[in-house]
Amino acid sequence: MTLPSADAGSSNSFDARRSRGIFRSLLSDKSAVLGLGLLALIVGSAALAPPIAPYGPNEANPALRLMGPGTEGHLLGLDHQGRDVLSRMLYGGGLTILTGLAPVVVAALIAVPLGLVAAWVRPAGAVILRLMDVLFAFPMALLAILVAAFLGPGTLNLLTALVLVLLPYAVRVVHQAAAHEVVLPYVEALRVSGTPVWKILFVEILPNVAPPTIVYSCTVLGSIVITAAGLSFLGLGVQPPIAEWGVMVSEGRSVLFVAPHVSVVPGLGLTLLVIACNLVGDSVRDALDPRTRATLNLSDNV
Amino acid sequence: MLKMLLGRLLAIVPVLLGVTFVVFVAMHLAPGDVARTILGFGATEERVEALRAELGLDRPILVQYAHWLWNLLHGDLGQSIALGVPVSDVILDKVGASLLLMASSFVGAAGGGLLLAALSGGAHRSMRDRGITIVTLVCASLPPFWIGIVLLYAFSYQLGLFPSTGMVSMVDPGGWLDVAHHLVLPTITTALSSMAVVARVTRGSFIDIMNSPYIFAARAHGTPRRRLVRVDAMRNVLPVFVTISGLQIGYLFGSVIFSEIIFNWPGIGLQLYQAIIYRDYPVVQGCVLAVAIVFVFGNLLADLIVHALDPRKRA
Questions:
Q1: A2/B201 Cβ within 8 A
Q2: Predicted ipTM beyond 0.95
Q3: What pLDDT is recorded for position A191?
């Protein structure tokens, strides 16, 4: 997926009144409600997996292996080892969401101090930005594959690879917003009044840098969910027999022509999850980014 | 124009150096001893030592990098561990098939995206616009590795319309038409989500521009709506369209890997996948490097086209 433009959001301050407006505008946005509802459904069912799943994730009934959806007691059928697909979907949901969400959150948390410092200390900033430029020269999925291939398979290595890949983009977003702030009169005033640098950066500037960072994180979430599942599909992330939707699609490939549901069902779940993420991401961007909101209003008047 | 081209080409040099450094250093991310990891735990100590010396792992990392870079400039990427042939041969062998798939996917993604954008953005808030918006949202959310599997099952296995594997028919190889027939499903798999992203972004630009004063003026003059979309607005949408299409090149590289694996397309992506499975690290490095270099030049090309299309940027 392409990365949304880094200049999403601008220097407008993010005060309480505006944030209430944002929640209201999110709730009045039908696609946001649909996305949030879908997301709540997927997260909720994944969180409730142990009590509601009919079987354990690796509980096999070899006698019924490859039976299709609608088999007695197995709503979504069984896989090549005779495990219940529905139960594996429920148990795998958590890890699928986590491997997409965690890198986005961690990358944003690392990017904020890096970006702020890069905007404040010019020479250090130049070095940080040059380093990030080199990483932009790689297609995102490819860099993730490169890093994951050398780190070796495993969930933790998958997360590390994704954080590394996301970092340059997140730093660019924070830096761009922060560079816009540091030249404003209020920062000058703080500096003259002797406010400590850390306080200027993390107490005064940070709240103004947060909205674009949040917008970026929300819009990129869907593509990171796909990339994470894709790496697991390649055998570079979550390892079988752990239930995870990318792993499940991959496992189903070998029995595709006999029992297509083994691959199709987890892929469908993944698609729904990504649709939900993209709906929410688009809506958050519309709510927080005054520029697109202005264009929407403009078209309303026509 | 020439001056700008030279400037951009010069600016690429440090980027390429950085790319080679990242690809080189990645090998040192491997936990434990690289030579031991490559050979597996059954290998004798002498064999590990020999490989370590061959890879130059006993020297300081910058020396190793300089040495590796020097060899790279001479077209020497080392030997494939699994195949026993030079990595450069492996890559040159596969790069054509990947570029063909990339090119057809790019044309599909950009062309389809622009068409959908004009159809929906040119008629903002119509039923057609809403329909296309929903379709592009779903397409943009499809994991390439899954949609490939679904297409394979539906169109190749169930309907028998398209071949399921390879680049040419094994039984009766039949020239370009045969290749084109094999190309259909992998191209759709690779291009679908990029096409949707191009359509979404370009649609936004269409809507903005359709609301600008010069379009109102043209409308007031009685220019037919079709002409407004196809000619008047199109000219100003093109820079946005080319930029977002150019950005897709990188994403297409990611998707190509999956469609090559699913459809057994004999390109760099499939080779990369096999190299990862066999821990053939020199081939992994070579494949990633080849793709990254193509990517850097692809971006440069997109930049130059935007520059040529938008007179405001020439000032």
A1: yes
A2: no
A3: 92
